[in-house]
Specification:
The complex is a heterodimer. Chain A is built from 9 helices and 30 strands. Chain A has helices at 3-28, 181-192, 205-208, 211-216, 276-285, 295-303, 312-333, 339-357, 514-525; strands at residues 30-35, 45-54, 60-71, 75-84, 91-99, 106-112, 117-123, 134-138, 150-152, 167-172, 196-200, 219-226, 232-238, 243-248, 251-259, 262-267, 367-377, 381-391, 397-402, 422-425, 428-433, 438-446, 451-455, 460-465, 473-478, 481-485, 491-496, 532-546, 549-562, 564-565. In chain A, strand 15 and strand 16 form a beta hairpin. In chain A, helix 7 (312-333) packs antiparallel against helix 8. Chain B is mainly α. The longest helix of chain B is centred in the middle third of the chain and has 26 residues, at 78-103. The chains are: A alpha+beta, B mainly alpha. Chains A and B meet through helix 7 and helix 8 of A and helix 1, helix 2 and helix 4 of B.
């Protein structure tokens, strides 16, 4: 065999080895991807993505979910989200990411620490797309649910509350086993933020029963009773604010309760014991979930955020002083040995003045950011936030914008190709801002419960502030009646309500200020006119420099706390 | 020390005054006009243009030319002339120090860039001082021709490269440094003033000067 023959064999063997090696790696690293709530996605809303792993290669460190958005007419852009893979080589990861455009598939890459692709999957979205929020059914029902309901199995029920963004309402019927604690918590947080949950719990309450369900239910001390028609029904003591919407055989059949910004409806009979007419009746009583949108508020607040800069007048005074000092010194001392040292000393004094004047409050920022955040707190807490950002730099600025969760960004109808590219990784979105460009990011995340409040009598409010800061602006709302509160100090405390209740909801903080406006918006969205609420707010400022990019952030935070009543 | 060897005197303060006055005006213009973020959207020009740094590059060069001419008038020569010109250029930089400190609030976190621009403008001023010293030699060119040649070369150095090689113009180089140039580019920006300085200094130091009385 000649040299050429040997070379051919060597090349063939090398190529074969490469192909087999690659196949082995790809074959070993298996993962499945499921997208959407009940397999459906609504463009412009968050959707759950669950990645199930088996036999991960040892080098796998992160997953990259990439969306290519737009077209040649609208503009194209790429958004990617990187999430760490679990430590074990088997398991699953759930993340809620926004779906912008169903025209192109979602690409999921398994990457090594050095960015090498170990495996990839393309997930087609077009067939999963629906235009609007839909009813989600969990478990079995006697007849198909009215409307375009989508069924989701217990195993696929998301454990992240923001993943329910596409749900109009969630109905929990007859299930073989109960939901786990994470699923209940996710549902409770979603309801807290404005979701709508319908629970069918007659004789099968014991299957569903969980501490979080007890917290959600509109009745206390549930027990089974027999109705006049011998059908078992769940009864109990109505919670404060709960209302009975319908009765059967003299027993409450449909009970509604506000839970944070949302609603919980309890159907006191088994899901398999209902007919189509009854299900339609329940549906007619079920409010649609309402997400809190703070995009407009954040943009409005950003508009009014002051620019950090020194005064032009001071610059003019400095110039005048310098222009007067020079001829004065030279005119008096010019030509003498110490003319130059005296001149230098005089200008050093001017430089010192300049140094003292341009303190941190007058140093400009490349980026201005206003976060409008509403924390809704009950026994759990959720945070709904919008961050409006604006570049004040004359150069393109790349910044890592810290966020609580995977953000959603409302995109304009058309944009420059690539101008909306963003990468989410390790709690920050990497964005390049063109000079003067504005962006808005929306996040929904879990939040710790900082406040607890209980109205123990007509005049006494027991408060617990687990935070470390004093919250200056606070008020109590009792069925629309406003009671101004003193600053909320950290720790436990009791406040005796003053007589200065107002029939109309007054502003929070200075009149016309961001807190008052945010309160007005939230008051309408969460219908705070009903029930008892502690509302508190604060505005904080932060300066931060990240990789040479300075950012001035203003946080406008509103706490909306459901107040328990004795 | 004689009057002729003083670093600054009543005859040579005008180039400094131009530097101080025009850099100060440029500083005032550099302060952004926007008061709140909304203003940035309605008028992008309110973002604030870093006029000060361009003015510094321009008037430090002009100062260098003026100092070179004054040195020729004084008849300074040799290494002493080079040292004196260097010190006078440094005084020019010191006169800009209050402005430079003020300007740090306009472009925060750019301390390194400021230092590079200060070094660059010092080198440019020194190189042009040598050029001015050479061209203003009374016996080399006539007074009018020397003056004309000096400013034609000045304008050519500042303006001509902007057409094709902006990096070789002091204005282009300052822009590049402000935009955050890569190290090789920044290094290239320093080549022209350093080369000019290296080429002109021996001639300027050896040139005969005549004191005009």
């Amino acid at each position: 065999m000649g040299r050429r023959g040997l070379s051919s064999i060597a090349i063939f063997l090398t190529f074969t080895g490469f192909v087999v090696g690659s196949w082995t790696v790809f074959a070993a690293s298996t993962f499945d991807v499921t997208v959407g709530l009940a397999g459906r996605v609504v463009p412009g809303r968050l959707a759950p993505i669950r990645l199930t792993f088996a036999d991960l290669p040892s080098g796998a460190t992160r997953l990259c979910i990439t969306q290519h958005i737009g077209n040649a007419w609208r503009g194209e852009t790429t958004l990617s989200y990187e999430i760490p893979v679990p430590d074990t080589d088997c398991g699953d990861v759930e993340v809620a990411i926004p779906i912008y455009d169903a025209a192109r598939p979602l690409r999921v890459l398994l990457l090594s620490a050095d960015g090498r692709r170990l495996a990839e999957r393309d997930v087609e979205l077009r067939s999963r797309t629906v235009d609007d929020a839909f009813q989600v059914a969990v478990g079995a029902f006697s007849v198909p649910l009215p409307g375009q309901a989508a069924s989701v199995s217990l195993a696929d029920l998301p454990k992240t509350w923001s993943a329910y963004a596409a749900a109009e309402s969630v109905w929990i019927g007859r299930v073989r086993s109960g939901l786990d604690a994470e699923q209940w918590d996710a549902l409770a947080r979603w309801v807290l933020s404005g979701g709508s949950l319908v629970v069918f719990a007659g004789a099968d309450l014991f299957v569903l029963d969980a501490p979080r369900l007890r917290d959600l239910l509109p009745i206390l001390n549930p027990s089974l009773a027999e109705r006049g028609d011998n059908a078992p029904a769940l009864t109990g003591d109505l919670r404060s604010g709960a209302i009975t919407l319908a009765r059967r055989e003299g027993v409450p059949w449909l009970i509604q309760r506000r839970y944070g910004g949302g609603n919980v409806l309890l159907v006191t009979t088994d899901a398999l014991a209902l007919d189509a007419a009854e299900l339609s009746e329940i549906r007619s009583h079920t409010p649609s979930s309402r997400g809190l949108c703070l995009v407009g508020a954040a943009s409005e607040f950003l508009d009014l955020q002051p620019i950090d800069r020194p005064s032009r007048w001071v610059a003019a005074v400095l110039t005048s002083l310098a222009a007067v000092t020079l001829p004065a010194v030279v005119g008096r001392l010019g030509g003498r040995r110490w003319a130059a040292p005296v001149l230098c000393a005089a200008f050093a004094v001017l430089a010192l003045f300049s140094w003292i004047y341009t303190d941190s409050a007058r140093v400009g920022s490349d980026l201005y950011r206003t976060n409008a955040t509403v924390l809704i707190e009950g026994s759990l807490g959720v945070s709904v936030s919008s961050s409006a950002l604006c570049s004040a730099s004359r150069q393109p600025v790349t910044a890592g914008v810290g966020v609580d969760a995977v953000p959603y960004e409302p995109l304009p109808p058309s944009f420059e190709p690539g101008s909306r590219d963003a990468t989410y990784r390790d709690g920050a979105v990497r964005i390049t801002f063109a000079p003067g460009e504005r962006r808005v990011l929306v996040t929904q995340s879990d939040a710790p419960v900082e406040f607890r409040a209980r109205l123990t009598g007509d005049e006494e409010l027991r408060l617990s502030n687990r935070g470390s800061r004093v919250i200056e602006d606070a008020l109590l709302l009792v069925d629309g009646e406003v009671f101004p509160l003193p600053p909320l100090e950290p720790g436990e405390g009791t406040v005796y309500l003053s007589d200065s209740a107002s029939d109309t909801m007054g502003p929070l903080g200075p009149e016309g200020g961001p807190l008052g406006r945010l309160f007005a918006l939230v008051k309408d969205s969460l219908t705070l006119e009903r029930g008892t609420w502690l509302v508190a707010g604060e505005i904080t400022e932060r300066m931060r420099t990240d990789g040479g990019t300075s950012a001035h952030a203003r946080d406008v935070t509103l706490y909306v706390v459901e107040v328990g009543r004795d | 020390m004689t009057r002729s060897s003083a670093l600054i005197d009543r005859d040579s303060w005008r180039p400094y005054f131009s530097l101080v006055l025009f850099c100060g005006i440029a500083l005032v213009l550099s302060v952004p006009g926007a008061r709140v973020v909304r203003d940035l959207g309605s008028a992008p020009f309110l973002l604030g243009f870093p006029t000060f740094f361009y003015a510094q590059a321009l008037f430090m060069g002009s100062l260098g030319l003026g100092l070179g001419a004054a040195s020729a008038e004084r008849g300074e020569r040799g290494g002493r002339m080079v040292v004196a010109l260097g010190l006078r250029v440094l005084i020019g930089q010191l006169l800009c120090l209050p402005y430079l400190v003020f300007a740090r609030s306009l472009l925060p976190g750019r301390g390194g860039t400021f230092a590079l621009i200060a070094l660059f403008t010092t080198l440019v001023a020194l190189a042009l001082a040598m050029l001015g010293r050479l061209l203003e030699q009374p016996r080399r060119l006539g007074p009018s021709l020397g003056f004309l040649a000096k400013y034609v070369l000045f304008v050519a150095y500042y303006a001509a490269p902007l057409v094709g090689f902006p990096l070789f113009s002091p204005l282009g180089a300052v822009r590049l440094l402000l935009e955050g140039a890569a190290p090789p580019e920044a290094l290239l920006a320093f080549v022209v003033p350093v080369a000019l300085l290296a080429a002109l200094s021996p001639f300027a130091a050896g040139a005969r000067g005549e004191r005009r009385v």
